UniProtKB/TrEMBL annotation:
Organism the protein comes from: Tautonia sociabilis
Keywords: Transferase
A Pfam family assignment: Glyco_transf_4
Protein name: Glycosyltransferase family 4 protein
Gene3D superfamilies cross-referenced by the UniProt entry: Glycogen Phosphorylase B (3.40.50.2000)
Length: 369
């Protein structure tokens, strides 16, 4: 198939460090190319890909340092996609809803993966208006605020199986990986580590929006001998960081749409201790790949049992459920269905109505052999 992948411009594809959506776009793009598809990636000019790259800005916006209005760059990106739309069998958007008014009128099959939270007050009216826009969820839980959207399917994220490898022995510490933000609850992670008496390593970025939260709430908690703040890390560092951990702590307090870090840990064989929010019950097999907990006491008990988890089985479940190959095959099935539906619709519109289609045959003709 001829497939366009449209990535956000905030991070390069793949990201240099933090960046969940762009990372998924990279894994999907490279796997589609590997499977023999003709893929074009619309992304920042510093992106690295085996696909054809159409640059929509010189450098990723977050680290590029020169962007004042990111919407302007994304509008420019939409125009680049539209100017080449006839070259594709399907266009796969990863940029939320900005393109909806134009995609509705484009006449080319398309689908949008929604990567973020959907429990926002402004979204129901938007998706009620654009209920013809096919969208993909990254977990079933993510859909719940927008049941009337045109859901084309749920596709769980996937990683290349070779990206991380199994580590059967752990280094006796707990890991927290992601963002320092109120919904990610690093304060819970610190409290769990203090209660169980185990070292906690925190690898996380601090966005500008969360700087005050970090300085006033989290930084004072890090003044403890068990807590080590590493900062933001990329793929090259995650193997050791996650693979050597006794367990990954995922103490979230929000409707997490997916949670890439959970499957990154699983790829290393590392069990996950996660709070029961959002997608967690869909991603973690309780007692198999980790533990799903409801409070701090439950999290501490889970950490105490983490060493009993079979790390080989954790890795095996990852390979079965969360590989990039599986993700790409799931998306191709959706692409093919949307292309088929569009083709059937064009035929039904273009074919003249048969004036005799509603005319009953005379009874004398019905039984003629």
């Amino acid at each position: 198939m001829r497939i366009a992948q449209v990535a956000p411009l905030y991070e390069r594809v793949p990201p240099q460090s933090y960046g969940g959506t762009e990372r998924v776009v990279s894994y999907l793009t490279e796997e589609l190319v590997r499977q023999g598809h003709d893929v074009t990636l619309f992304a920042s000019g510093d992106s690295l890909t085996a696909a054809r790259l159409v640059p929509c800005c010189d450098r990723a916006l977050r680290l590029g340092g020169r962007c004042v209005d990111p919407i302007a760059r994304h509008v420019y990106q939409i125009e680049r996609v539209l100017s080449l739309a006839d070259e594709f069998d399907v266009i796969h958007w990863h940029t939320d809803y900005l393109h909806f008014p134009l995609s509705r009128r484009l006449g080319v099959p398309h689908v949008t993966t929604l990567h973020g939270r959907l429990d926002l007050p402004d979204l129901p009216d938007l998706y009620a208006e654009f209920d013809d826009m096919p969208v993909v969820s990254i977990s079933d839980a993510q859909r719940s605020p927008l049941p009337l959207a045109r859901w084309a399917g749920t596709v769980y994220h996937g990683l290349p199986e070779s990206l991380y490898e199994l580590r059967e022995a752990d280094g006796g510490y707990l890991a927290f990986l992601g963002r320092i933000s109120p919904e990610k609850r690093p304060d819970r992670a610190i409290e769990i580590a203090r209660r169980v008496g185990l070292p906690l390593k925190i690898a996380a970025k601090v966005d500008k929006a969360d700087r005050e939260y970090y300085e006033t709430t989290i930084r004072p908690l890090m003044d403890h001998p068990l807590v080590e703040f590493i900062g933001e890390i990329g793929d090259a560092d995650k193997q050791d960081f996650l693979g050597n951990a006794l367990a990954l702590l995922f103490p979230i307090d929000w409707p997490e749409p997916f949670g890439m870090v959970m499957i990154e840990a699983m790829a290393c064989g590392t069990p996950v201790v996660a709070f029961r929010c959002g997608s967690v019950p869909e991603v973690i097999d309780d007692g198999v790949t980790g533990f799903i907990v409801d409070d701090l006491a439950g999290a501490c008990r889970a950490v105490e049992h983490a060493g009993r988890i079979d790390r080989r089985r954790v890795r095996s479940v990852f390979e079965q459920r969360f590989s990039a190959r599986r993700m790409a095959l799931d998306y191709v099935a959706i692409y093919e269905r949307l292309v088929s539906e569009a083709s059937e619709l064009r035929l039904s519109v273009s074919e003249p109505e048969n004036p005799f289609s509603q005319v009953s045959r005379p009874e004398s003709l019905v039984n003629i052999a």
